[in-house]
Amino acid sequence: MELFLIFSLYLLISLFLYNYFIYPAGIIFISKLVNNKHKPSSLDSYPSVSFIIAAYNEDKVIREKIINTLELDYPEDKFQIIIVSDGSDDNTPKIANEYADSNFIAIHDAQRNGKSSALNRAVEFATGEILVFSDANNDFSKNAIHELVKHFSDVNIAAVTGSKRIYKNSDRQSAEGDDLYWKYESAIKQAESHLGSITAAEGEILAVRKSSFNPIDPTLINDDAAITFDIVKSGSRIIYESNAIAYEEASKNIMDDLRVKIRMTSGGFQTIVREFAFLFPPLSWFSFTFWSHKILRWLAPHFMILILLLSVLLSHRADGLFLLITQLLFYAISFYGWRNRESDLPSYIYIPMYFTSMNIALFIGFIKFLAKKQNVQWTKAER
Questions:
Q1: pLDDT digits over 232-248, tens only?
Q2: CATH placement of domain 49-250
Q3: Which residues are bridge partners to 205 per DSSP?
Q4: How distant, in Å, are the alpha carbons of 251, 274, 307, 350 from that of 178?
Q5: Which residues in the chain are classed under CATH 3.90.550.10?
Q6: In angstroms, rounded to a whole number, what is the distance separating the alpha carbons of residues 38 and 151?
Q7: Residue from 157, 200, 182, 319 nearest 257 by CA
């Protein structure tokens, strides 16, 4: 029995370390050894683009978003803007309508059916060859559209996602953690893209060939995951372009960040169930990377709980006791950081606190998925 407990403990530790450290390091290393055959176009001709913004009660930021979009560097006669604000009961539709013209469409319906449904409605009005999806609370770099669409000269590429970056802001509790997380994710996505397809698009900055877009199931939480799987299953690629950047503020309150993680994780498990036959067994390169990058990440809090319990059961051994003390110290630092999260915490306290709280959110997301208590309508973060 003890041998089984020891084996289980080290297996769980190995899976945990593999997901957070070994897989990222390995795939980045492999990507350096492989030549990338894809060469983006110099854009001698520009494809037409429909820029779609899904907004729900965003009157605090929607005007700034519209101005940012109008200032993007792309030929005006090839650029259509669509704002869909289904369910908004503030001034979002009114502000959007102020800009309406032949290349700017403002869509509003009093009924709120979730983001996937709103995106499907917007695509019905899209005239562009390329659809670019964005959120209301981010700013695109001026050259972002150029950087995204230059890849579509390759017929094997059906979608391109950009880089997400967090504005530096010491007043926002999640700024440091979000910034570190997205830099970490960016390095992994760059490597995955180099070797094939990324495992998940960023819905905040995502370009899709219109001919490759299928209406999104409105019951799905993670619309970007649905687009990713549609494209990969069709035999096309979805790649990452680090020079197309979407900037946004971190959540004002770390609780808002936790709610986002809970929702996304619940949607992640929904994706696993929906795509289980495609993902298991993980024999294709995409399914292998998806398990390595995403599924093990969503299971990390389960591993952490089991590692702690097994360390308690094996605390009569020197290695078990060492692991137990190490974990208790880590969680004690995390708890202290949480209690003092509104203070200016040093990194050696902030990082354990942020890491632990985010994994708690992942576990809650799993519980909500099991209980079927997460729906397609989201709770807006404070702007």
A1: 999 999 999 999 999 98
A2: 3.90.550.10
A3: 134
A4: 9, 28, 26, 12
A5: 49-250
A6: 8
A7: 182
Give the CA radius of gyration of the chain. Answer: 22
Among candidates 253, 281, 294, which has minimal Cα distance to 20? Answer: 294
The answer to whether the CB of 192 falls within 8 A of the CB of 199 is yes
What is the pLDDT at residue 176? 62
Tokens of 44: 């001698």
| The two structure tokens encoding residue 130 | 């390329």
User: Would the CA dihedral through 370, 372, 375, 376 be positive or negative?
Assistant: positive
Cβ neighbourhood burial of 96 (10 Å; 0-12, 13-18, 19+): buried
pTM attached to this predicted model: 0.90
pLDDT digit string (tens) for 278-308? 999 998 999 999 999 999 999 999 999 999 9
Structure tokens at 216: 């999104």
Calpha distance 365→369 (Å, rounded): 6
User: Which of 148, 165, 119, 150 lies closest to 207 in space, CA to CA?
Assistant: 148
- C-alpha span between 103 and 201 (Å, rounded): 27
Q: What distance in Å separates the CA atoms of residue 193 and residue 246, rounded to the nearest whole number?
A: 18
**Partners of 171 in beta bridges:** none
Tens of pLDDT, residue by residue over 4-50, are: 999 999 999 999 999 999 999 999 999 999 887 677 766 667 899 99
Which helix or strand (DSSP H or E) is residue 230 part of?
helix 223-233
